[in-house]
Amino acid sequence: MEQRTVGRSGLRVSRMGLATHTWGSHTDAEDAAGQLVAFVEAGGTLLDTSPAYAGGAAQRILAELLGDLVSRDELVLSGCAGTAPWGFPPAGVPVPAQVTADTSRRALLRQLDRTLLELGTDHLDIWNVAVWDPRTPLEEVASTLEQAVRSGRVRYAGVRGFGAWQLASLAAVAPVTAAQTPYSLLARGAEADVVPAARFHGVGVIASAPLAGGILTGKYRDGVPADSRGADEATAAEIRSGLDERATRVVDALVTAADGLGTSPLAVALAWIRDRPGIASMIVGARDIGQLTGVLAAETLELPRAIAAALDDVSARAAD
Questions:
Q1: Integer distance in angstroms from the first to the last C-alpha of the chain?
Q2: % of the chain residues with pLDDT over 70
Q3: How many whole angstroms separate alpha carbon 110 and alpha carbon 142?
Q4: Whole-angstrom Cα distance, residue 222 to residue 187?
Q5: What is the CA radius of gyration of the chain?
Q6: pLDDT classification of 225: cutoffs 50, 70, 90
Q7: Among 65-79, 223-237, 261-275, the least confident range
Q8: Does residue 87 have a pLDDT over 60?
Q9: What is the secondary structure of the chain as a DSSP string?
């Protein structure tokens, strides 16, 4: 798998990253192990984790796999902090419904220390502020990131889900290397704000949700499969709200392109976002090893310029 530099830093990551948000909920420990091995064997390095995924279960599963199954040194671990209540609920205990932003020095460093303890590692390669917190002074967030980097517990600092002005404000006073933001054929708002702001400040963009919750795989064209996120009570409303006329036009274009290239709509959608200007990597999740195999196949797809331009045009017109 090709490696790319993140922004103007020396950090190199695989141009496709593996998400772990389904681990412990829709993906059991055995399948998670299979995913991790397959990802690393394919040359993948960037692994996305969070203490919030599956109420902490995802990180606990990852902790069991690091070292024994895959060497810690083979991975670029990307974690985060910034929400409260913090901590790691016991298995089976749901995450509190009321989750608020807390990026105070106390909260951030407490979450960092607990994440490192749980994962059994002495550092995170990328540590992200997960949310904008208007109650915490920007200077405090900046100094906390600097402190974490100086201590060696964090190699590079980043943000997740920040708007352009929020990213620019923090990057002007703190060593921000990466910005993770939603970006896909159905969510191109980042092109107008976050991507230019990141470029100006030398920050690398990591695209999240590049398949728009699975819509861009084409699996919802003929209805909602029983085993899909669209049928899951927790995510059904989010997925179904995206199944509109605009999505239909984009998905139809993806299917046509995939048929012509002898591949899948999923692979075409990922190749398109992978090759967009300013993208260092993209975070892609899979429920099982079968889905991951399809995702990894996208790595070898070279999208012809004419097809990429046609998808760009259809997507842009669909957004009007």
A1: 35
A2: 87
A3: 16
A4: 22
A5: 19
A6: low
A7: 223-237
A8: no
A9: --EEE-TTSS-EEESSEEE-TTBTTTB-HHHHHHHHHHHHHTT--EEE--TTGGGGHHHHHHHHHBTTTB-GGG-EEEEEE-EES-S-PPTTPPPPS--EE--SHHHHHHHHHHHHHHHT-S-EEEEEE-S--TTS-HHHHHHHHHHHHHHTSEEEEEEES--HHHHHHHHTTS-EEEEEEE-BTTB-GGGTTHHHHHHHHTPEEEEE-TTGGGGGGTTTTTS--TTSGGGSTTTHHHHHHT-SHHHHHHHHHHHHHHHHHTS-HHHHHHHHHHTSTTEEEEEE--SSHHHHHHHHHGGG----HHHHHHHHHHHHHHT-
Tell me whether strands 3-5 and 12-14 are parallel, antiparallel or unpaired.
antiparallel
Q: Tell me the DSSP string of 237-262.
A: HHHHHT-SHHHHHHHHHHHHHHHHHT
| Tens digit of each residue's pLDDT (9 = 90 or more) over 7-29 | 999 999 999 999 999 999 999 99
How many degrees, rounded to 5, is the angle at CA 241 between CA 237 and CA 247?
140
Q: Would you state the structure tokens that stand for residue 272, as one six-digit string?
A: 């398109």
Q: Phi then psi for 46, rounded to 5 degrees? A: -80, 120
Return the number of other C-beta atoms located less than 10 Å from residue 119's C-beta.
Answer: 22
Nearest to residue 201, comparing CAs of 176, 232, 231?
A: 176
Which burial class, exposed, middle or buried, applies to 3 when counting CB atoms under 10 A from its CB (0-12, 13-18, 19+)? middle
